Each structure stands twice: as structure tokens, then as C-alpha cells.
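Limitations

Structures in this collection are predictions, not experimental determinations, and the ligand pose is part of the prediction. Treat each record accordingly. The example that follows, with 2-amino-3-ketobutyric acid as the small molecule, is included so readers can see exactly what is and is not provided: the inputs are given verbatim, and the output is the predicted complex.
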Amino acid sequence: MKNILVIGATGQIGSELTLELRKRYGNTHVVAGYIQGAEPKGELKESGPTEIVDVTDQEVIEAVVKKYQIDTIYNLAALLSVVAESKPKLAWKIGVDGLWNVLEVARMHGCAVFTPSSIGSFGTDTPHTQTPQDTIQRPRTMYGISKVTTELLSDYYYTKYGVDTRAVRFPGIISNVTPPGGGTTDYAVDIYYSAVKGEKFVCPIGEGTLMDMMYMPDALNAAISLMEADPTKLVHRNAFNIASMSFAPETIFAAIKKHVPGFEMTYEVDALKQSIANSWPDSLDDTCARNEWGWKPMYDLESMTIDMLQKLRAKL
Ligand code: AKB
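Predicted complex:
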């Protein structure tokens, strides 16, 4: 039986991943690690163990790993792309120094580690259409630079120390539970809230800007399936391209308008977000993930839109 620690358990992905892991492995086997000021609430707090785990503090991580005999760590602590540009040093401290702490604890205590990378690990020099698994990664944002470094550091710990590190490059993640904060792809979540609230949506990303996106259930499934994959089949490790849909603002707007006929959208392009978006791929080639561990998404834009609108209507 696995004993799992989720670091960053109250964030956008962590809050849902922790509950999904508890469903699969048992409530008492999944510890929700959070930082002060981001305490777990509701089901996340009630359904299993919770501990303060600051990724920048190796001793605290080690104490929790020992206390619960942790064998698998999902390390989700990171600043998203836009906020990382205003706090580059903090982004590095959490993303890179934090991962180093996690990897050291994993090395000493035999834990497997999942640390997500992102489409942000690519840059303007990367082929933008059907971006290959192995290609140029020269990002110019601190988010991207820290993500490429986490990929390399994770591979280093695998080859040098045999730590079982695995990762995917997440696209923009769309969910109806915990909102993202400070990302370039956040508009694709915000647009659904505006539609359900009956508000006009002001889009910060320009018409025609393609970015890869994914619905949360597929993202959770990707992380868990990769960690359960047969290691002998893995040619790659850190980190796999995964993809399910790629769209521009006008396409997601049209998909929502089909179900909310009165919905309106205008553009007020945010220069920083737009420049980051322009440097990211339009679409990813995820053949390696499909071949090496059977990755297959369930949702496309239409099925995600139906589910998002239904869930948000019930919630709001
Ligand atoms: C962001 O926009 O920063 C993230 C990402 C794609 O990594 N959602």
C-alpha cells in the first residue's frame, strides 16, 4: 500500500489530486501538505491527515516523510508563470531549491517523486506546432527556466542516485473547484465563471492565440497513471508531453456560446500574458506518453464545456 505526501495540497491541482489519491489509495494513506495561510478546508481537511509542509524547509519535509512512512511524493509547489515574472527569486526558491529539498529527502528515504513541468518549459525557438517530446527548450521566463531546471534536476537524481522521478508537462488546466492564480492560461477558467454568472468576459489573450489546455480529470489521471506506470517501459521520465485539446480564445468562446446564447466577449490584451503565450507551443505531440505508459485523454473542448457549465451552475 502506498503512503503519499502531496506538497501544495491546497492549490489548484493539489486540492483535487489529494482527494483523488485518497479515493484510490485510502484516506489515511494520503497526507495533504500545505503552507501557513493556505490551510485545507472542508473535505480536504476532514477526509485525511494534513500537515504543514513548506517545500523550502527540508527538515520539515523529512519529518513528515518519516512520521507517515511516505514512499511517494507529489510535489506541486510552484508559482505560476505570470506571478513568477514579478517574483523571480521566489519562483526559483520554491520551484528549484524546493525540489532539491524534496529530492534529497526522497534519496534518503527511498521515495518516488512526481514534479510537474509545463508547456512553459518551451520558448520561442521551439517548433510551435505539434511540439516534439525532445526538442529545443530555451524559455525566457523565470517560470520556464525553473521548469526546465526541474526536469533536468529530476533526471539527474534518477540517473545518479536511482530516485524514481517522473513528470508530465502540463498544459493550461481547467477546473471548477479551486481557481488557478497567476497563470497565463487562467483565462480559460475565468471565461466559464463569467458565462455562468451572466457577465461579459474581457479576454486578456488575443484572438488567434493557440495554447494547449486540459480538463482537470484528465490531468489527475495523467499524474497518477504515470506514477503507476511500469518503469521498464519508460524511455523518458522528466518530463512527458501530454495533450488533449488546443484552442484560441474565440474557439472556447464559441463552444460556450453554443450553450449560453447570450454570452459576450471582448478583448483587452495583457501585454505580459500575451508575450508569454506567444512563446509557448500551439500544440504538443504526446506520442511518447501514449506509447510508453498508455496516456489517453477523455475530454475534448465540447465534453469539457458541458461538464464545466453544469458543475459551475450547481456551485454558483
Ligand atoms: C500557467 O499558465 O502558468 C500554467 C501553465 C500552463 O503552466 N497554467
